[in-house]
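Predict the assembly for these three chains.
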Amino acid sequence: MDMALEVAVAAIKIFIVVNVVQLVVAYMIYVERKVIAHAQLRLGPMRVGWHGLLQPIADGLKLFLKEDIVPDKADRIVFVLAPVMVLVPALVVYAVLPFSATFYITQINIGLFFVLAISSLGVFGVVMAGWASNSKYSLLGALRSAAQMLSYEIFLGFSVIGPLMLAGSLNLQEIVHAQRDVWFVFYQPVAFIVFFVAALAETNRAPFDLPEAETELVAGFHTEYSGMKFAFFFLAEYASMMVISTIGIVLFFGGWEGPDFIPLPGFVWYCLKLGAFMFVFIWLRATLPRYRYDQLMRVGWKFMFPLVMLNIFLTGFLKYLFL
Amino acid sequence: MEIYFFYMFAGGMIITSLLMVTRANVIHAALLLVLTFFFLAGVFVLAGAEFLAAVQILLYAGGIMVLYLFSIMLMNVEVAVRMRQWHRQGVVVFVAVVLLGLQIWAVLGEVEFAAPKQWEWSLGATPGNVEAIGAVLYTKFLFPFEVASVLLLAAMIGAIVLAKRRIER
Amino acid sequence: MAPLEHYLILSAVLFSLGVVGVVVRRNAIVVILCIELMMNGANLAFVAYGRFLDSMAGQMIVFFVMAVAAAEAAIGLAIVVLIYRNRESTDLDEINLLKL
């Protein structure tokens, strides 16, 4: 009986989180269009609802009703599974993310490691999509994406080690508790910069959006996709942006906790920080030109990798001396 | 409860690995192997090795298998699908391998163990599996750990030397 | 908690399936994949023994096996890619001369 209750509570929480995430993601796309439009002195979507507020729903309806094309020469099974393989890891990760002191689906002692492991699977969907489409552009996009995501996963993994050493735990709740006095971003500014650049590359966002570079690869790995399958790729991109922002907030910005002199509930603090992160993501897309492929690899391996190793070394050294 | 999960993972693992051995398309085989690794990670969690389960997914599924897919995509899969997939001595091999499996099982099952002391299985337990692994890895197993790093360095250099194209002078 | 027997049977089945693939298949990449499967069968036995002996050594060995697997994947794939560049094929029956 106890067990059944536990399962039921978990199921309800999962239902809430998955649906809210999808809704928020739909509105993230709207916000992105609006912010970029204003950055370029345009208006953005204005027609559907007040200032285009119902635009995401109209877009979703359109994608849902659109004809779903599978190319003739495509590998059917892999082609259909690829969008699922992109979206599912991005949503599974939410199982361990802490949204506030009390609201989370579960907490496990390998929390952060679980997040890194599961989110490293997103690359499979991209590779599968690129290969199964049986199109040159898609394959090129997939190859680029595989190399880029594998390389930057390494920097992402190394950049979180600094905060981990300070917190002494992989459990995301405990990492937040360890930052009650000082946010780790003040102790670990280098780690945060590397983390943020790696996060941009992991989520295929500008200026590292080479896998889907529309001017050279006509949208890369999802060229051949349409309808709901295309929507899955979009949902997954924004869902994983939110995951990586949450990890950044938990590791460097004190999670759901804010300064004591402003009494706001934990969840509101979390939402504010998440919003700020997402705004920076969009802002960068509106501002920066795209990197060239060899530049991307050079920045990663010749600049960020030594930097992050130095950071780990210094953190260990200083922690041994002073803490 | 746990035992049902074990059978679920075990069944999934056997089915996917069987399919993986028999597929003609290399990409399908690689993707099925990823699924097998997933189920194996599940079994690792049930056996109280959650750190290894995460490493299994991060390293095997997220790293090594992507490397495989990357290389396979550089080749022409269509040609390989059309060629004959099996050596002719299939039946003999099958019988021999069944015998081999039975032998392995017999030898492994030879060892007698006292029943393990019952412990509470929990992913939220502290101190967790990670701490235990870290404590052993950097004390008792420090030398093998360093040797492993040298091995990886050697493999890295070897792979680069093998795969790079000769530069025309 | 599943008994040790079951872990060992599962491990033996995985290992044997890997052996079948290595011996019977003609595609070089599938053979390497099957070697990975064999390693994982062995890993499972190590973890199960470690769990039932209440020792960390089993998990440690798996950790090192994974390092070896990564090295093996890199070298094996480099060799296969090299062969493919020279022969336009990954058929093992065509590359049994020990020379190019």
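Residues 4-94 of chain C form a domain with the Helix Hairpins fold (CATH 1.10.287.3510). Helices of chain C lie at 4-24, 28-53, 57-87.
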